[in-house]
Each structure stands twice: as C-alpha cells, then as structure tokens.
Amino acid sequence: MATTHYGSASAIVGETVHRLFHINCYSRTKEAPPSRLFLSHSFKVGDCSWRICLCRPVDDLSSSAGYISIFLGLDDDVAEPVKARAAFSLLDWAGNPVPDHTLWCTDLHEYSAAGVGYGFDNFIRREFLEESGHLVDDCFAIGCDVTVLRRRCMEDIVIVPPSNLHLHFGDLLESGVGADVTFQVAGETFSAHRCVLTARSPVFKAELLGKVCVRIDDMDPRAFEKLLHFVYTDSLPKMTKEEEFEMATHLLAAADWYEMHRLKLICAETLREYIDLNTVVNLVVLAERHGCYRLKKDCIDYLRYPPTLNVVMAFGGFEHVTQYSPALLRELWDVWFEDEPLQDDLALSL
C-alpha cells in the first residue's frame, strides 16, 4: 500500500512586483535639503511594505553632485531579515524605459528594519532630465521592479509518492488472479487478462476476439514472457548483457507485429549499442524488415568504413541480405559505390 508522508521543509520564495513612481513636483527636489525624502506610496511585496525614495545626494560636493538619487527602502520593521533587489528605469511619457537609464539594478541586499535603503546616488543627471523632454510640467516617472526573496517554513507538506500502478499490474500478471485467456507458446503456457492486452495492442484486441486460448508457434517463450511483462508494466525486466541483445531482436519483431510502438523504439535503441562486425548484417536486415530507420542508418554508416566492409564481404556476410532483400543489397551498394557497377559475384546472386 502506498504511504503518504508528512513533514516540514523550507523553500526560497521569490516575488516580483512592478511599480510606477510619479514625481509631480520636480522643482521641489532641487530646493529641498539632502535629508528630505520624496516617497512613493507604500506597496506590498513578499509580505513586506516598501517605498521608493528619491532625494538629492547627501553630499552635493561629491561625484554625485547634480544627480538625483533613488533608493528602495522598507516601510516597516520585519520579524526576520528579507533579501531584495530593485531595478530602476526612467520612463518617457509613453511609459517606455529611456535608453541609458533602463534597469539600473541593485545587488541583492538584506533588509531588516524600516528606513534601511539601497539604490543609486547618481541615477539621473539633472541637466540630462531637464533637457531630455521627459520632464513635462514639472513631472516625470520612474519604473521600479522589486524582487523579494524570503525563506519560508512550510509545515505539513504532503509529499505525493510516485505512481506505482506498474507494480500493481506486475503483481496481477505474476499472481494470475482473474486471468481469462491462455497462450500456448512453443510448448509453454502463459495466463493473462484479456482487458489488459486489448487495451495495450490493437492486434491483441483482434486476435483475442471470442477466444480463450491462443497458440503461438513462431516466438521464443522467454521473449513472450518479457513481452507480457512490458504489456503490464510498460517496462522490461532486468537482463544480462548476453540476454539483452537476443531478447531485443525477438521483442522488436514482436512489438512490430503487435503494434506496440514504444517497445519497438526501446528495442531499436538498445540494438544500436550492439552494432559490430558479427551483428551488423543481421541488424540491417532486421531494421529493414521492421521499418527501424535509425537502426538501419547506423548499420549502413558502420559499413561505410572500407576495412569493415571488406571483412564482412570476405566472410560472405551479405548472403543473408541477398536472401532477404536484393533491393536492400542494391541500396547498400549505391551508398558505398555510387559510380561503380555491382560486382559480378554479388550480381550473380541478385
């Protein structure tokens, strides 16, 4: 039975809010002392209250003289420090950011009390603003994106376990409880459930119509057992390397016959790892027979290397290709020798 776990955890939660700050009396900022702050309305981000602060630089004799300073500050105290950053942009009267004054972004700072602020002393040069056309009727606008990161404790989180449906269906196959159809495969008997098989394969659906026993003579019983395992669990059982190659060849053919496309792709991908001098000819024929394009292409690419091709031809490897599909042999020859006629010893077999 699946178990649902309960526990506690913490997570970093991020929230970003965009605010507009309209400064309606720019001339006052020129006349006010540096200690005078021009504040935006209070707004909430990350469960905290914030204000945008505009002022003259504290030291008008510094390199910031002649600039407008801007900061983000907490509007109230907080129970625990929060981390935040602000990105400021001067806006034109269409509300678009002004080039060279766009997204002046602060570092991520820790805010712990009201009145603490971080920003830029030299955000806008007054001379630029006054001559830019963005100051109209003693008013201009600033956009501010405020991002707050905060660690929150989340109690009683429900941790949903992963799906185990495949385990239940695997148990159903193994137990045979409720089985209503039997397969005779090369002398061995397998029990299964008609509803599962018909749901997974249109060929099984047609094959089982009105039948309680089906005889299969052209499949390895071990392969059929693994085919049933896949039908019920959508996965293949663990196999040794020696067994994996043999079963993949059998199962690819079975998957093609029963129109189980996912199993067919799994087998084809597995077989691509086993292409070598001993297997390449059989695999290219298998790929051609069952329409596995990538497996076929990999086999042909492997055979493009002249020494490899010579070894395969020397040991009569292409007799199997000739017997199965002369057209495939011609296709291979066209790939290797575009401008040369088919060799006599091969042509005689076509």
TrEMBL record:
Residues 16-146 form the MATH domain. Pathway: Protein modification; protein ubiquitination. It comes from the Eukaryota. One of its GO terms (biological process) is protein ubiquitination. Residues 179-240 form the BTB domain. Belongs to the Tdpoz family. This is BTB domain-containing protein.
